């Protein structure tokens, strides 16, 4: 066995050991267990005991002999053997000694519930660091401190908030916030989502969300949920998050995530346009998209999207929705919201309309949206769903069913009709049940049959749009033809800072980009001859200053030698000017491509229309390098002004296939050469099958 293989085997065994001890422990010690229901140690012990934990349970308390009939161990030292898992709920000044003692005896994992550490002051942070050192040295997993605990299908080791009651385990949850976990569970259960494993990491002294995601992925099995929610306040290990989120997606697990702190105030100096336009949250957004995580802004949206994913059993096949409602107003509002979410309401076939006309009264609207009127009956609802399933399965991706308490029929029968029809329907059904007060008990019965529901049309439509817009992660293929990595390496060896235009040209040509002819002129006496080589009209650009346009260093439409000589004098008067670059005039639409290094995230590739579209209107898209062709095309299609690329008012368009190829090449360039700090290709310009990098700059790390 090679060293690398041995290391991989050891890492796999450690992952399995941590998973077993945290998620499926055979023995649990509760340090600080008591009968006090409002103290962490008392509540967590009571929950583990009362919810039928089948393993060995050791309460540790020097002042008691038994708790709920379970013999109490007076101290950690008195334990008969090392537990798989220990939960610690004792005063903060005693925790380090307890962690040390448990580590020395071979405990597999420790969850520290106690607060008063890094979240409090510097002294508390120092204690956290010491706990981490002890755990790392012993190979013991450490969760917390300052966390509310774990819930798994094996044990209920959590002291705050609710313990889920709905069976099924639709959702697993990894969170850096205990309050977020508690809120989401309580509200989500009322909507029909059940929970299996719920993890709160507290201060994450040793293991953070990314680390737990790795362990979860490496041990993912049939007991794990098909939906995984995550809540993060910081992304500390983006590569780890990307790797294991993508892996889980391939296993059929849909991830929904919140990363808070998206509007952190601040600014930074950046030499490139790309770096200046990327905000602190841009890299996170790009990371989630590349990882295949559906990102939402808040807890309510997390629940809404979770309900959609459960109802459609994973992913929507497309964006086509049929609305069935018993009131016109809500149906119209939902149609508006679905339109805002970029969903479609397709027309129904003539055959479908004929069948619906047989089911509903003449005054009903049978187009999409279908208005079944307040007088609707359970038999009518069953028939509508059956007809749509039989005749529109290839035309629809979801049925949104809206119903309130009309007072004209028993809503329990309506809900039951939906519940009975949903499992048999080839088209997923999304129920919006608005009568939460008058029909609360009936809705409760509905969700206990395994269903979810939505209380309002805005949340439903937004969530449906999120799920429909979800893209499965794609693999980056081989580098495109004409990409010469060796030549690029030679050009970039030993350079730093802003590169000379000649080196930039060499790099871009070696990467397969197309540049217009260009000539550098450093002596005025050479200008006339070189202008004749390029041909008039031409472009003159100052060499030296980084941002040429900002200092008036780009002059277009130079018509003759006299203009060229005059422009030479003006350009050479610019501070830091060393020469002039000559290029032929290139016509056509302008776009900007660029990339900037965003710390541990890697390079962020940017695309947008040129000029004010990018800098003022911020009509740009970002993605993490490297890019697959489908990701590049998604960036192009994602800008608001996308139709301009096809040409408007008689103007020629731009070849988006070549543009996509340029983005792919740029992604490989910065991924292969992380020493590139920033790069701008601005503008990229052309029409038809001709596309040129008209101006560019590359800045290397120093």
Automatic annotation (TrEMBL):
GO terms for molecular function: ATP binding; transferase activity. Residues 22-117 form the CoA-binding domain. This is Acetyltransferase. Keywords: Transferase. It comes from Desulfopila aestuarii DSM 18488. PANTHER family: COA BINDING DOMAIN CONTAINING PROTEIN (PTHR42793), PEPTIDYL-LYSINE N-ACETYLTRANSFERASE PATZ (PTHR42793:SF1). Signal peptide: none annotated.
């Amino acid at each position: 066995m090679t060293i690398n293989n041995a290391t991989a085997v050891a890492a796999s065994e450690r992952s399995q050991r941590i998973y077993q001890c945290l998620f499926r422990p055979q023995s649990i010690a509760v340090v600080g267990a008591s009968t006090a229901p409002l103290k962490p140690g008392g509540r967590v012990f009571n929950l583990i005991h009362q919810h039928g934990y089948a393993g060995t349970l050791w309460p540790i308390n020097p002042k008691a002999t038994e708790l709920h009939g379970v013999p109490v161990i007076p101290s950690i030292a008195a334990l008969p053997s090392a537990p798989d898992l220990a939960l610690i709920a004792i005063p903060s000044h005693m925790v380090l000694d307890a962690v040390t003692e448990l580590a020395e005896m071979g405990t597999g994992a420790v969850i520290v519930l106690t607060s008063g550490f890094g979240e409090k002051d510097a002294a508390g942070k120092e204690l956290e660091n010491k706990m981490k050192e002890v755990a790392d040295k012993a190979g013991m997993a450490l969760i917390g401190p300052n966390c509310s605990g774990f819930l798994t299908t094996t044990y209920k080791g959590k002291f705050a908030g609710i313990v889920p009651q709905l069976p099924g385990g639709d959702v697993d949850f990894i969170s850096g916030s205990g309050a977020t976990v508690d809120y989401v569970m309580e509200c989500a259960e009322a909507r029909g989502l059940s929970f299996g494993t719920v993890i709160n990491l507290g201060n994450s002294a040793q293991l953070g969300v990314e680390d737990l995601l790795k362990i979860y992925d490496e041990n993912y099995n049939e007991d794990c949920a098909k939906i995984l929610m995550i809540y993060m306040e910081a992304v500390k290990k983006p590569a780890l998050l990307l790797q294991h989120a993508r892996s889980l997606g391939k296993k059929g697990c849909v991830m929904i995530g919140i990363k808070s702190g998206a509007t952190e105030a601040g600014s930074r100096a950046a030499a490139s346009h790309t770096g200046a336009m990327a905000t602190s949250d841009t890299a996170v957004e790009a990371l989630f998209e590349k990882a295949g995580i559906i990102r939402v802004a808040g807890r309510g949206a997390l629940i809404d999207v979770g309900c959609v994913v459960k109802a459609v059993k994973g992913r929507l096949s497309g964006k086509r929705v049929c609305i069935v409602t018993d009131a016109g107003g809500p149906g119209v509002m939902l149609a508006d919201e679905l339109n805002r979410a970029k969903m479609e309401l397709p027309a129904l076939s003539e055959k479908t309309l004929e069948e619906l006309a047989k089911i509903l009264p003449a005054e009903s609207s049978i187009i999409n949206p279908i208005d079944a009127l307040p007088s609707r009956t359970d038999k009518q609802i069953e028939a509508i769903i059956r007809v749509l399933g039989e005749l529109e399965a290839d035309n629809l991706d979801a049925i949104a069913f809206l119903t309130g308490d009309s007072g004209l029929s028993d809503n329990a029968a309506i809900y039951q009709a939906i519940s009975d029809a949903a499992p048999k329907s080839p088209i997923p059904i999304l129920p919006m049940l608005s009568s939460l007060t008058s029909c609360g008990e009936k809705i409760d019965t509905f969700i206990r049959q395994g269903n979810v529901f939505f209380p309002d049309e805005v949340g439903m439509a937004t969530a449906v749009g999120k799920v429909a817009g979800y893209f499965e992660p794609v693999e980056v293929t081989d580098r495109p033809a004409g990409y010469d990595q060796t030549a690029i390496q030679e050009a970039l060896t030993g350079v730093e800072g802003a590169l000379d235009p000649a080196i930039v040209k060499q790099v871009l040509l070696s990467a397969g980009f197309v540049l217009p002819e260009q000539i550098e002129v450093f002596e005025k006496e050479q200008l006339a001859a070189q202008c004749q080589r390029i041909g008039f009209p031409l472009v003159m650009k100052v060499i030296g200053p980084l941002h040429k346009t900002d200092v008036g260093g780009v002059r277009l439409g130079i018509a003759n030698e006299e203009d060229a000589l005059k422009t030479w004098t003006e350009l050479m008067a610019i501070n830091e000017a060393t020469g002039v670059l000559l290029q032929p005039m290139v016509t056509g639409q302008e776009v900007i491509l660029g990339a900037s290094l965003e710390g541990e995230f890697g390079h962020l590739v940017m695309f947008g229309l040129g000029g004010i579209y990018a800098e003022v209107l911020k009509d740009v898209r970002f993605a993490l390098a490297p890019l697959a062709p489908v990701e590049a095309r998604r960036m192009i299609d994602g800008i608001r002004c996308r139709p301009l690329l096809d040409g408007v008012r008689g103007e020629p368009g731009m070849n988006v296939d070549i543009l996509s190829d340029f983005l792919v090449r740029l992604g490989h360039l910065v991924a292969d050469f992380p020493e590139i700090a920033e790069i701008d290709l601005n503008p990229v310009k052309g029409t038809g099958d001709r596309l040129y990098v008209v101006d560019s700059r590359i800045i290397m790390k120093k």
